[in-house]
Amino acid sequence: MSAGITAVTNGFRGFARYLGGVMGADAYAKYLEHHKASGHQEPPLGEREFWRDRTDRQDRNPQGRCC
Amino acid sequence: MAGIPDQRNYGSRAEGGLATDPDLPPPAVDQATLEAEDRKWTPGKIALWAAIALLGGVAWFMLAVVRGETVNAIWFVFASVCTYLIGYRFYSKVIERYITKPDDRRATPAEYKADGKDYVRTDRNVLFGHHFAAIAGAGPLVGPVIAAQMGYLPGTIWIIVGVVFAGAVQDYLVMFFSMRRGGRSLGQMAREELGVIGGTAALIATLLIMVIIVAILALVVVNALGESPWGVFSVGMTIPIALFMGVYLRYLRPGKVMEVSIIGFVLLMAAIIGGGMVAHTEWGAAVFHLDKVTIAWGLIIYGFIAAILPVWLLLAPRDYLSTFMKIGVIVMLALAIVVVRPEITVPAFSEFAGRENGPVFSGALFPFLFVTIACGALSGFHALISSGTTPKLVEKERQTRYIGYGGMLMESFVAIMALVAAISIDRGLYFAMNAPAALTGGTVETAAAWVNSLGLSGVNITPGLLSETAANVGEQSIVSRTGGAPTLAVGLAHIMHQFVGGTAMMAFWYHFAIMFEALFILTAVDAGTRVARFMLQDSVGNFVPKFKEASWRPGAWLCTAVMVAAWGAVLLMGVTDPLGGINTLFPLFGIANQLLAAIALAVCLAIVAKRGTFKYLWIVALPLAFAAVVTITASYQKIFSPVPAVGYFANNAAFSKALADGKTEFGTAKTVAAMEAVVRNTAIQGWLSVIFVVLSIIVIATAVLATVKAFRDRASGAATTDNEDPAVPSRVFAPAGLVPTAAERALGAEWDKVPADARLERGGH
């Protein structure tokens, strides 16, 4: 019984993670990963600054949405 | 297929110069292993594909050959899905083998330009969803509904066959070539491959096409919300909801995208339910009952403000909401169609299939059906998304087939579902909803009398059915609700109420459908205005350099105002058009969209020729020729046809003559002012058609010249220039498709053993 619940919870978590990925919710985590992997000396942007920078860059460089 | 010379050239570009790191496992499955896997046909595999082919064949037989009283909607699902699977497994592999020739030993821009922000390696399945959400919008939901005037079969064939041979090919090729060029945009590629003339023509055409597309999408929203207090309230509420989400993400809990999306979704549902309550109060009905002209002006003002507000405040949060809704709605629609399996009574070919004066859109089946359904079969707008955004996120080259080709197949499936939803409603109801008020007279009695006078087989509609349906979906009237969105909403409500909630829920489902279509379109309008403004600023900046500074407010505002004025003028023209705006303008939308597709395919043709792939050039030339013939024929008829219902200038001349003769009413225009409006509108629409087609012919001609030159250069042994970024060896591995193959799994296991810090070279930046 509990195995079934675990499976359902895991499935739901996986789906939520997938949806989050599609919507770009994991952008900051991926930025940190990149920052770490590329061995930058300076500290990474904070979460708040990263998201600010992200939308501000979209302001300067608009992306189309399709019909 | 061994022994075909081209095969031996596979990947030869990259060989020699491309040395991958010997300390790492190979970043690509060995070419011979790949081919062996492809060519190994186990009995199970043969049985599976035979079953898919058989099921698809039976489904097509049921749709196209069997002429019963009704046909079950499930056959549409089988016919489309089986054809997509076969197209994906076989045709897209032909394209991969002979045209794109991806090489996983090469790093993608997401790897060699990685910055953690714009260039980020993204899991293929996540990117598939991301790309799909970016290309799919209201287009595939609207076009098939309008095209259903001709019966279900012509639209079904075009959506399914068109996507396999044209739409998905375009998306895949543009994505691949943009990826090889560091994620360059279609405009930049056109400039590089076609030279200054072709590039400039492509740029102007893109800008104009964008204006038309935004205007007509806005017209669809206006038509859906006109005289609908419920719709106006619930769609209007999306603005404060998005603003709240924007502030929440910026100041309260930055980065909590899923959390805020769920909050936004709950608020959105509350807005739909609340809209029903508000519309039933006296003050609500009075305040939110707006005519179409008022809504159009509201949308124009909104469009301007939304495009100059910072992205974080309105665009970004609404984008999250719209992505969330998009995936939910499509899953729901697919489930509902499979579970409910509605019986379709619409004939395969309707009485209007052989005529050119249909009330929903005018013009003969060829070419106008093929422009009416643009998104879902072949959409040029996708080329703008497939270049630029997605290529910067692709992890491995071979994944572009899955994401580009596969993503477009998915959109085509959305179009098929929209078609099924629209044709599941009564045919009489369909024509009463989709014919302009000038024909139906606007009331249930006149509409029913007019529909019954068409002499359509099996159609006998009563005024009672029209008012009952309107009451069920919570609207005052559904007569002449043109634009496709309300019909789809009625169809969706019709299917969904059998699935969840019964008749009591029909009004909710109707407004739910109107809400998501409006949400997609408002996002497209906002983003389209921004992109168009940006292009205009860039172009003007060539003469007045100050305009190139994106942060220079007056320049940005002025260019935004120009773009909003341009689409706003077309929108107002459509809203006030005495002939019925959708009827005359929708073909222009389709023509514009497919001319853009022709431009994108022309650029691809030149690139493929320069790579020396002449034997398989037809894979690009076929959809290009078809798109060119369809759009140029359609434009030609719109410009030169002597039939006033089809030709803009013929109509213009007819109305001008009536005015000169001193008539005070003519055709569906009942006043002199209305007649003057027709003269003005037809002239503008006619000249727009002329400009579009001339620009596109220039682009196609320069592409053909570039192709011929490439052929000559090849024959004479002259060196051809290649605009690809230099090849960089890759240091990562990921499977290409949805399910990893045995060889991919084995290689993946090897990579899993490599310590994380040894995989990527430490960059010095």
List the helices and strands and how they pair.
The complex is a heterodimer of chains A (67) and B (765).
Chain A: H1 2-23, H2 27-37, H3 47-60
Chain B: H1 5-8, H2 31-39, H3 43-64, E1 71-72, H4 74-100, H5 109-112, H6 124-135, H7 139-147, H8 152-180, H9 186-225, H10 229-252, H11 257-280, H12 282-288, H13 292-308, H14 315-340, E2 343-344, H15 365-372, H16 381-386, H17 399-423, H18 427-434, H19 437-440, H20 444-453, H21 463-472, H22 485-499, H23 506-540, H24 553-576, H25 581-610, H26 618-640, H27 648-660, H28 672-716, H29 742-752, H30 756-759
Antiparallel strand pairs in B: 1-2
Give structural notes.
The complex is a heterodimer of chains A (67) and B (765). Chain A is mostly helical and 67 residues long. Chain A has a domain of 35 residues. Chain A is built from 3 helices and no strands. The mean pLDDT of chain A is 88. Chain B has 765 residues and is mostly helical. The N terminus of chain B is likely disordered. Classes of the chains: A mainly alpha (67), B mainly alpha (765). At the A-B interface, α1, α2 and α3 of A face α6, α11, α14, α16 and α23 of B.
